[in-house]
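Can anyone check this?
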Amino acid sequence: MADAWLYDGETALRHAVSIRLEGDALRIARADGGTASVPLATLVRREDVAGDAILGRRDLPGWRLILPGGVPADLAAALPAARRYGGVIDRIGLWPAAAAFAVLAGIALALFLNSPPLVARAIPRSIEQRLGELMVGDFGKRGCATPAGDAALAALVQRVDPDDPTIEVSVVRVPIVNAVTLPGGRIVLFDGLVQAARSPDEVAGVIGHEIGHVRHRDVMESLVRQFGLSVLLGGMEGNVGGYTNTLLASAYSRKAEARADDQAIGLLRDARISPAPTAAFFTRLGGKDAKAERMFAYLASHPVSADRARRFTRSLDPGAHYQPTLDAAQWQALRGMCAASPKEENGWRF
């Protein structure tokens, strides 16, 4: 038997009551003679107030039973335990709940890290091509074009990858050693890279590597990872400049780079183009001092390492009969196409 205060949920009056256990119910007797039997299963423990235990009922909102000084020892085993953290945690315990949360957080993190590749591969090709067309426009009128240069570039691309007519490669007048792959199979070579290359075979290796990013849709994965579904839903027209800047500034994962390298090595092998010049190109760029390296944006978006250069060197077949990608006249036309193109600097959108 214990004394308590009762709010019955029907009136605002507080009733003095006494309580005692009767089997699986709590017997409540009011001072005015009224009695009630409340099943223990309907009782819930509320947050204690100033040392007083508060009980409520699941089936009767507003009903409150206040036990001054807390739950008496003889009733404690039968009544609900005090809430410390909240429903689930109190039911299973703090450490089991923490372990369960850690597992769920790990699953959520794994889904987050692995969802961009899945989402990127689910994007329709038509949308990817449309986005690529818009992003090509970011380069404004800096595109380089001459009849001889265009023919040489087409011959180089055809030599590297004769089986994919959807690949489009262009050169733009930007004095930075860089290349960028845009959505829809569009590859843009900066003239700074063409001028830094010592042979067309070096450019062929770069193009082969970029084709690897096209094949595995690494471009869309990078955009999805940076921008989420806003790539599709956020209005491509309004933010296309931001997307292009992201592709220029971000680096692919090591896994993506390794896949692209494998693709390039395979394309060069099939085309009977020596991988040695590509290895030399990577080694030469990676060997620049720190100050000069800042001028070579290709190192930022495509991390160059001695290990990667060695992979191309190891793919060299001493018994193969390699053929130059372009002849001297074609190479000269490709290197000179930006110098011979009209300079229209306006239209650079980012």
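Reply from J.R.: I decoded it. The first helix runs from residue 73 to 76.
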